[in-house]
Amino acid sequence: MTAYPAWTPASRPGIVPLHPLSFGTILGRSFAALRQNPRVLLGFALCVQTGAYLLVLVGVGLVAWGSFIRLDTVRPGSDDFEAIMTGSIALTLITGLVLGLAAGALGVIVQGIVVSEVAHAVVAEKLSLRMLWQRVRPVVWRLIGYAFLVVLATLVLIAAVAAALVGIGFVAPPAAIALGVLAVLAAIPLTLWLSTKLLLVPATIILEHASIRTAIVRSWTLIRGRFWAALGVIVLISLVFGAVAQVVSIPFSFLSTGLSTVIAPTGASDPNAIITLIVGSVLTQVVTLLVQSVAVIVQATATALIYVDCRMRREGLDLDLLAYVERRDAGATALADPYAENIGRVIAPRQTAPVFGAPAGYPGYPPAPYAPQAYAPPYAQAPQYAPPPPYAPPPPYAAPPADAPPAYAPPADAPPADAPPAVAEPTGPAPVEAPRPPDPTRPPDPTRWAAPGQTTGNPDADPESPWS
Length: 468
Description:
- This protein is mostly helical.
- It is 57% helix and 0% strand.
- Helix 6 (140-171) runs antiparallel to helix 7 (173-197) and helix 7 (173-197) packs across helix 10 (227-263).
């Protein structure tokens, strides 16, 4: 006999409902992970972004100072001066590129932490930074390798296009300019298309522990059918944070420029003006880093939610998540990771329950517990009926045989047919008795009284008596 618990607490709600998500839900809930665990996510992202910025700034600055300072040892305009100048510029650019790639690798780690946090927030779990890192650490090198692969492919493609344009430019410069403009214009939709098709690669690597090739194939397959929704979410978030960064940084720039003008109105080299300009620039960069950190978190959250939504629609991930939440809240332990189960499962398209004011199949609502009935179209062609058979006359009347019993026999106590009809007794109301004359010997009734000249309606009353 199976024993069931007498009471089970209600499932804790996560940052999103456990059913396929709509466009508005993904866009609105992209900020929910930051509100749920701001100390871990915002603190970690801000520290990483600041460290990456300082790494690039200090590294490029030191290399540039060490290489360009050699120009003081040679005469300007000489061959040695030109050679040192060219080498210093190339060395500075290479250093900036390498350190930029390193900063990008750190940004990929932030994205991995955010995706892992969102995956747990969907099922109402809140983990520490150390626990999140333990989940991301086994696949961190795959994330970094994928980021470098994307950068390398981008550089190779840009170099190939640039080499082709330069080769055409030697032959026909106007054609090279026109092709360059067309290449730039074509690069915008191509970049948006490829970035959207490969949007789910980091989430697939983190949550499914897939290889880079498998993650690319999975992302290409999962995003099918949700391409425009994913593209809209990413583009809107990028535009919003780009506008916020400009709105926030412009006042600080104006403030630092205004203070420098007030301190040194003639434009002379005043130490106070230089210090004010440096402080204003530092404040602008700090605010910009804060906005960039929030943008990285929100974009990574949107990517994770799009991944969850695509798997819900294509593989029924919401069923696995609901089962996991119910078993966990019922007290079960050592549960399997719901994101690692049923990978690649394909389910039949599910109908959604009709919503008041919305057509059937409206996105963002749980699936209906019943299958919708199929109705005939209102103006379908009427069915064709077969014509009735031709009219056939009834058979002729046949007389019954002589020895057949009568169809009706009168009862035994019935009167004969030639007897006279019985006369009914008259009925009506009972006869009314005639009024009796008054009795002079009877005393008057004290309970009856009438005005003089009137009677009480009692036949025994004396009309001359005052009591009548």
